[in-house]
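Researcher: I'd like a candidate sequence for this fold, 244 residues long. If you have to choose between options at a position, lean toward the conservative one.
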């Protein structure tokens, strides 16, 4: 089975449509979306509609989704993120709100464990290094864990002894060796932060155990224009062009 793994869509409809088209070209049979469906960009409701009408699509919540529905303390959000969450919350239709309220920050998928942050703290922990990854490997029994939240395409693996980590490059096939336990992060669809402004997704082949990140260009100017028109903080538009 081939699975499209998406994360941190953050209400960016143009980026989402671009990665879904890329996923369909790759012939995926299922889609995992690892939370932060909304927040930052200007299309929360159309993004939710797109994802809920997609067949075989598993959704979990991220900290922004929880915050938009009053289930996450935003004290530690920066000002820009807080403004975006307030704006997002005001946009939600009753159906969109009900959908978000029904999501949890982790789920069991056919191909592994789905979390937004980490296996230790599914809503909010950033797995940015081997030590953080090790804590997740030690806390929960999984062979494969799909996570997001850092907006960086990353692989951590446990070879039975040590935990290793590496960045995933566009188009590079990465084989998960037999016996490895793995944590895979597809990067961000809607607000990449690794210096590459193109939307990011990961395609995972469960039989061959091959993971491959795809970077997809989309109409950034259109997304930026919507952010400005919505009166969201302009920095949210500017950063998309830099991939930061
Ligand atoms: Zn995010």
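Model: Candidate sequence:
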């Amino acid at each position: 089975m081939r699975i499209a793994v998406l994360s941190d869509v953050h209400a960016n409809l143009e980026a989402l449509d671009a990665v879904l088209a890329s996923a369909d070209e790759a012939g995926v049979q299922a889609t995992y979306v690892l939370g932060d469906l909304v927040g930052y960009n200007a299309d929360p409701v159309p993004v939710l509609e797109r994802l809920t009408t997609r067949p075989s699509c598993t959704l979990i919540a991220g900290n922004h989704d929880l915050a938009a529905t009053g289930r996450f303390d935003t004290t530690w959000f920066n000002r820009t993120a807080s403004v975006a969450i307030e704006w997002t919350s005001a946009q939600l239709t009753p159906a969109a709100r009900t959908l978000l309220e029904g999501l949890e920050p982790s789920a069991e998928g056919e191909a592994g464990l789905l979390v937004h942050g980490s296996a230790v703290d599914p809503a909010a922990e950033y797995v940015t290094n081997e030590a953080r990854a090790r804590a997740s490997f030690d806390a929960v029994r999984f062979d494969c864990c799909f996570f997001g939240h850092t907006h960086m395409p990353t692989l951590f693996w446990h070879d039975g002894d040590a935990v290793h980590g590496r960045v995933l490059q566009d188009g590079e096939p990465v084989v998960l060796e037999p016996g490895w336990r793995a944590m895979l992060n597809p990067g961000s669809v809607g607000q990449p932060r690794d210096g590459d402004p193109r939307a990011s997704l990961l395609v995972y082949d469960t039989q061959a155990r091959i993971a491959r990140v795809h970077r997809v260009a989309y109409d950034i100017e259109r997304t930026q224009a919507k952010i400005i028109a919505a009166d969201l903080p302009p920095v949210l538009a500017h950063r998309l062009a830099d991939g930061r």
